[in-house]
Amino acid sequence: MKVRVLGCSGGVGGAARTTSLLVDQDILVDCGTGAGELSLEALLRIDHVFLTHSHLDHIALLPMLVDTVGNLRERPITVHAPDETLRILRAHIFNWLVWPDFTAIPDRNSPILRMQPLQAGELVRLGERCVQALPALHSVPAVGYCLHCGGDQLAFSGDTAVCDQQIAALNALDRLRYLLIETAFPNEHQDLALAARHLSPNMLHTVLDRLTGRPEVYVTHFKPGYTTGLTQELTNCKSRLPPQVLLNGHCFDL
After folding, report:
1. In 3D, which of 166, 158, 153, 172 has the Cα closest to residue 3?
2. 21 pLDDT higher than 90
3. Residue pair 58/18 in contact by the 8 Å Cβ criterion
4. 237 — phi, psi (to 5°)?
5. Top-level CATH class of 2-253?
6. In the structure, what pLDDT confidence band is assigned to residue 239 with cuts at 50, 70 and 90?
């Protein structure tokens, strides 16, 4: 299993691309603007999209993906997400007002888009590959994910504040090699991080100190205007798990 970072920013501008991870050639974890880095041929290979939550920076390219490749495929794209996330997609995106309802095109018996609910703790098996939803605590219902194919595990926090349930789930992973975890705002804006249910470097430090394993830690979801300050604060972090900054194009082999 190979995971490639297509986008890992909390916003856009210049080279910034919002969250999307490509797993092998056929799975996306989130579908932010980073998914636009893929060629048409690569987009045609996407069979599954696992969404962490419904915010636009994580779903922005999903409507365009479905519209671009739907009529060129012989099977639907399956979107996996919590029930509430799927409800929001149906009500506010695929509603014939913002975008066509591709769960009914060409008809509901053979749609271009299929929605599959999953909840925290649920495991989806795709051949030898496993995608397990992890708890998260955000301003809307959200999950993270653990990816593996029987060996090393990669966990992606999704958007989250300090979440006791997620920390417990991470500590229960016995082969956790990589942790991709968000930090959106610098310490001087910790009040904003708390209100928006994101992490700051100080809050990230709290999470890392509660982990029992020793994964390599990569920090994602910087708000573009705070990149320099966040990078410096993470460099100064004295956690036993020193965080690294996640970059577009970064690849992980599992």
Report:
1. 153
2. yes
3. yes
4. -65, 130
5. alpha beta
6. confident
Distance (Å, whole) CA 60 – CA 202: 29
CA distance 1 to 112: 26
> Which of 100-114, 138-152, 235-249 is the least confident region?
235-249
Write the CA distances from 121 to 13, 48, 55, 107, 198, integer angstroms: 35, 18, 21, 32, 21
Give the integer Cα–Cα distance in Å for 133 and 82: 9
Task: Provide the percentage of residues in the chain whose pLDDT is more than 90.
Answer: 96
Average pLDDT over residues 73-88: 97
Contacts of 36 (CB under 8 A, 6+ apart): 17, 61, 64
Identify the CA nearest to 35 among candidates 1, 8, 2, 75.
Answer: 8
Which residue in 40, 41, 39, 33 sits closest to 15, CA to CA? Answer: 33
Does the global pTM surpass 0.85?
Answer: yes
Q: Is-contact 247 219, C-beta < 8 A?
A: no
Domain extents for the chain?
2-253
Residue 227 φ/ψ, nearest 5 degrees: -60, -45
The DSSP code for 76 is: P
3-state secondary structure of 180: strand
What amino acid is encoded at 70 in this protein? G
pLDDT tens digits, one per residue of 219-237: 999 999 999 999 999 988 7
| Sheet hosting strand 176-182, strand order edge to edge | 123-126, 129-135, 143-148, 153-156, 176-182, 216-220, 243-245
